Each structure stands twice: as C-alpha cells, then as structure tokens.
Amino acid sequence: MPRTLQRTEFATAVEELARERHIDAEAIIKAIIEAILAAFEKDYQEKNGVFPEGDYEVIIDEKTGEAKVFVKGKKGKEEVTPPGFGRIATQVAKQVIIQKVREAEKMAVIDDYQGKIGTVVQGTVIRFDDYQKQAIIDIGRTYGFLPPSEQLKGEDYLPGVKFDFYIKEISGEGEERRIILSRATRELVEALFRREVPEIANGTVEIRAIAREPGVRTKIAVNSKRRNVDPVGACVGQKGVRVAQVINSLGGEKIDVIQYSNNPQEMIEAALLPAENLKIEIDEKEKRAKVLAPEDQLSLAIGKNGQNVRLASELTGYEIDIEEEGGRKRLKKSGESKAKESQGDGNK
Prior knowledge:
Layout lengths: L8 H13 L3 H24 L6 E6 L6 E7 L2 E4 L5 H30 L5 E10 L4 E5 L4 E4 L15 E10 L6 E5 L3 H11 L1 H4 L3 E9 L3 E8 L6 H6 L4 H9 L4 E6 L4 H8 L7 E5 L4 E6 L1 H8 L4 H10 L2 E6 L4 E5 L15
Parallel strand pairs: 6-8, 10-11, 13-14
Antiparallel strand pairs: 1-2, 2-3, 4-5, 4-7, 5-6, 7-8, 9-10, 12-13, 14-15
Helix pairs in contact: 2-3, 4-7, 8-10
C-alpha cells in the first residue's frame, strides 16, 4: 500500500510537484533515496577506499527532508551518516527532482504526440547521425527520429533544412519512447493531399489507392462522392497549384493523379498514362492484364527502367504483360497488390 506522506513542508513540496507534473510522489521519494544511497557509496569510496559490504538504508525525515544513512547489523540499525553529508544529500535530492521533472515533461510531450500519429508535421533537421544513419529532427516541443528506412533516396538532411514529415509511430517503452518520422511512406502522400485539398479533407473526394517509389514517382487514384465534383481536378487544383504544393513538399517527386474506376480495364488504362491508344485484355479471375501498345507508345507505357508499368501494376493489383502491337513481346510485370487502399476494396 502506498505510504501517505505527513503534511510537512517537505512532503507538501513533493506532493505539489507530483500533482503539477503528473509524477507519482512515491516514485520521487524512491528515486531520491536510491540517488542518495549511490552518492553515499561514492563519497565513502573517495574518502576511504573500498566500500564495505552491508545492507544499507536511507531514511528521509518527512518533517525536515533530512536524509540519514543506516546499515543493518546484528545489533539492529546503526547510523553511518558521515559528517557534512547532509549538504551532498540535499544537492542529490535537487538533482533527482529536476531529472524527474524533465522526464515527466518529456513523457507528457510524447503522450501528446501519440494522438498526432498519422499526421504531417514540419520539422527542422538538427543533425545527422553518421553512425546510425538517422536524422534527428526538431518538430517543435520535442525531437523526432528519421531512420534510414524512412528517408528519401538522394535527399540530404543538412542541419537547418526544413521538411514535411509523417508521424509514423512511437517506438520503445517508458523513458525510451521515441517519435519515428517518415518521408518514404505512402501515407505521407495521402496526408499531404488531405492538407492541400479541402475536398479530400471533408470527404467529398477519397483516395482509393496509392503506389509509390519514394523520391521518384507516385501514382494516386481518386474518386468523387459527388457527381458535380471532378476528383482529379480537385487534387490538381487551378493551374496545378495544389499538386504542385505536394510535389514541392516531397522534394520534386513526380505525381500522377488518375481517376479511380471499378472497371479494371479503365483503371489499368488510366494507370498506364501517359501512354495512350492501348488495347487491354483482362483476366479478372487470375488478376492479369495483357496490354498491346502501339510502337510509339510502348516506351511510355513501360516507363524508364519499367517504372510506369511497375507502379501501374502496384496501383491496380494486376499482373500486367505489355507487348508491342503486332505480337513482339517487350515486358511482363508481376504486379502484387501493394497499393494502399484507403477506402475499401479497390476492385469493388
């Protein structure tokens, strides 16, 4: 059962601190006792050499806050508090309290950011840890960490540079908890569009799927819940201003915004843009598509290093075989369904 501190000046000060900072009063007292005992051992070793074994105990006078050290022996407890140790004990107690306050404030901030997971925050690079290959980011009230797996290839994280980050998760336990940020996740793209496009924020336009090669290119399929709202136009914005803001936030990453369709043929045709005049045969059971492309559209359909068809396959969930019209086969793309479905099944 928790011990109730007597209503003294010392106890009142501890309890007020505990209440204001949301720290357990017993935890404060326990930490002070442990720290004082460690200070006593260190002080003894510095003055006398080897510290003698024994069962030591620190007792704090709850009326005055004075700390005394005892050792348990055959005749009971014997006080071994050295002369002048009270000053050391007081300093230690102050240090522990300051540390506990800082820890409590840190935990309170982390708890606050727990509710911000899944949102975008602007942060400033503090430094880059060359050993762990991670960037430490100032995100306002605390710091976030950008591990290698969440960084954009080719992006330099130099001190003082600002970026938009996705708050991905909080890892670790207790005092070891850390805010993990991301620049590479598909969810960052979705969150940026939600920030820039009111129609997405209010639910009029929904993002149905996202395929992304971080730092290079993204394809995003959007749908409107209202007939009079053009989802692609809403995302692109007047003179392209909305999509340009997202592109700028992603460091120049190319973005293709396409109209989502329940019809697999229409969806694949849109996903393979900018290639046009394609002939598409669909096998819905096997989730495969055979695409015939005119000679002058073949390279556009495939894309540089197969990027366009690879993203189209990811976006639609179909394996796409591309051939030049006339029978000469050029590319077969296995398209595992990795697209991020944010609103139900993309093939409904």
